[in-house]
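From the pipeline queue, job 12 of 40. The input is one protein chain; the requested action is below.

Action: predict structure.
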Amino acid sequence: MFFLSTKSRTGMLVPLLGIILIACENKSEKTGASATGTNTDAARLPVDVLIAQAEELHQDETVIGTMMPYREVSIVSELAQKIIRVAFQDGSYVEEGAILYVLNDADIRARLRQLGAELELAKLNKERLDNLLKTETIKQQEYDEALMRFRSLTAQQELLRVELAKTIIRAPFSGKIGISKVHVGAYVIPGTALVTLQDQINLKINFSISEKHLPLINKGTKVRFTTALSTEQLEATVLATEPGLDAAGRNLEVQARVDNSNRKFRPGMSAKIHYSSSDRETKGVTIPTEALMPGNGGYNAYVIVNGRAKATAVSISNRTETDAVVTSGLHTGDSVIVSNMLRITEGTPVKAIIPTK
């Protein structure tokens, strides 16, 4: 009885030991596989990534311009005469044709009266000789001399009338008059600046743009501007551009017009001009500047492809201290590496970490 019982227990123990050994072998294999996977992940360089998202670009350029009057003229005298009247108030608004100054005209009028008497006598003499010429009482030469005398005096009379008209100085256009530099009693000579007149209903803004932006500015182009008076953006229309570039700075001189009917602005004020430097429907991807690496003649950015870093050449349209706008080389959905840049080379195994916002 004792022998049979021991044999039965031994038969049950052998299969149980086999099961335990198989289980231990399977556990050892799983542990080895897990350790291999852990070692593979540890070999990958952890990097922060940015998922590229292409957006429409709205880039503006800003330049400084100067406001100028639409029209400006320095009022001068054409005669050497004494001023007998100043017909405006300094700093007032005058209409076109308004009298500004009146010069002494007494001597001109006296010469006109004298010339008028001589002209009347010359006319009578011409008519008398004309009748005598018809009867052949005088020679043709005598009549011709009388005729030329009459015509010469007529021309002198017209000249004096022109001089008389110049004794009244009028506004050539409507605008704001400045401060008179002369007063009643002053003797002026031709070319003496008397006062400045400006048309300020419309103003011109003169500014310069870089040669690379030439296609963006043409006659009729709308630009925005701000002044020191307010940050509100107003609109101006490009009137004209210079035919050529400034050789020193390679810039193009531009002139735009702005409505100033409310007389809010003054000539000489500065203006910040804003105009778009991106074409319509142009798209780009904004990435941190630290994601850029110098490349052959430009910049590269690293993206993740099949778990490895891949360098791609990119084109930049604008760059600040913190961000850069990439217009080619990146596409929506690309995983752009933005950290550990100095440790990355082409083909480096990486592990992407997407920062949480």
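Job complete. The helical segments are 2-43, 106-134, 140-166.
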